[in-house]
Known about the structure:
The structure holds 2 protein chains of 2 kinds.
Chain A: E1 7-9, H1 14-21, E2 28-31, H2 37-42, E3 50-53, E4 63-66, E5 69-73, H3 89-98, H4 105-108, H5 113-119, H6 125-133, E6 136-141, E7 144-149, H7 150-153, E8 154-156, E9 159-160, E10 167-174, E11 180-187, E12 197-206, E13 209-218, E14 225-226, H8 228-234, H9 243-255, H10 266-289
Parallel strand pairs in A: 1-3, 2-3
Antiparallel strand pairs in A: 4-5, 5-10, 6-7, 6-10, 8-9, 11-12, 12-13, 13-14
Helix pairs in contact in A: 8-9, 9-10
Chain B: E1 2-7, E2 10-15, H1 22-28, E3 48-51, E4 54-57, E5 70-72, H2 86-93, H3 103-116, H4 124-131, H5 141-152
Parallel strand pairs in B: 1-5
Antiparallel strand pairs in B: 1-2, 3-4, 3-5
Helix pairs in contact in B: 2-5, 4-5
Amino acid sequence: MKPARFEYTAPRTVPEALAALADTGRDVRVLAGGQSLLLEMRLQRLRPDLLVDINRIAGLDRLGVDDGMVEVGALVRHEVFDSPWAVPGPLGTLLSLAAPNIAHPPIRALGTMVGSLAWAHPASEWCAIAAALDAVIRLRGPEGAREVPARDWFRGPFETARRPGELLTSVRLPLLGEGTGVGFIEHRRTHFSFAQVGVAAALTVRDGVVVEARIGLANCADRPVRARAAEQALVGAEIGSTLFARAGRVAADQDAAPLAEPYADVEYRRHAIAVLVGRTLRQAAEGARQ
Amino acid sequence: MKITLTVNDEVHPLEVEPRRVLADVLREDCRLTGTHLGCEHGVCGACTVLVDGRAVRSCLMLAVQCDGRSVRTVEGLRGPGGEPHPLQRAFSAEHALQCGFCTPGFLMVAAGALAADPTIGEDPDRVRALVESNICRCTGYEPIRRAIVRGSCPGSVA
């Protein structure tokens, strides 16, 4: 199908974009990479009245590091993170492990990380990482600028704390300290499928004992999940042969709330979550040792 | 809306509705039907073109987004004397097409990667990862991979 009719504007500045977004009586949508939005419009599941194309706003493509955080602007494309050197330290490694799981290169050339957070697909890799690291989403709107931590951001499938008229301008992610090991593993039916289960992990280990653990789950509930119960099971524990398998079981039973999908019922998905969390933690522990 | 697209170095002043995707405008307004539309979902890759040198899905990009930008389609691969691009000769030499529907997309994704990094043909893993973005339903991917390797090594095409 072709998209339904809509009006289009391409503002040059954030205030101009906010003026266009202030038209809250109509369905107004932000066009950044458009790789989910235009697909939904083609399927006519979305029929916006007005598209605000932010691609011509200077400065939103900024990727910068300050204060131990990396700030990713609203126009930074997925493909930037294919390289582990785009962002310093273990965070750069984690993002580069996740990036190849996102669609394929021509989609990654246009799609954006911040767009993924705005779209809030439960299977999104970036959303799982944002949940794990408690990223901070920065917005500008009619009432000024504000920041929302990831724990308050995701409200359900495709639902976020974004208020009408607001524009996501960037996301801030904490740089992980040297010595932190990271892992990202995903399971899908085919290369083109969405993740049945995706797991992001960051582990800090001192003298064989886990001192910090962060685990994010993609498509393990109706929204991205930070696996806090599994993290608690890890912190303070000595790394041994069964620790990661036990943490995987905790994540599957206590943190995840998987929904049945075609080809993956709840029991199967809990099993896959337990296995993949264990596997991702082992990958992260290898990195922590090096 | 009035827009200007530079397609294969030719300037096209156009009047387009915002809802029209780049692929439709290339085919219907610019009369460049070498860009094919398969799934129209961003999955199959038949509609891949280069916008400012980067391979993108022209079914998932609006023509109005490309106002003032440079687009290269499969018609723009040929050389100044009309000779085929080395990749096109390699696709022929390696029998990398049968029905040919997917070929423009494979050629453009390969041309974009090759322009960004002329050494891509030296790494089989990168060539394999490159063609994962496109679907061929008759030839199979092995001859396509061979063609990309052959087309990316200057002098290797007879």
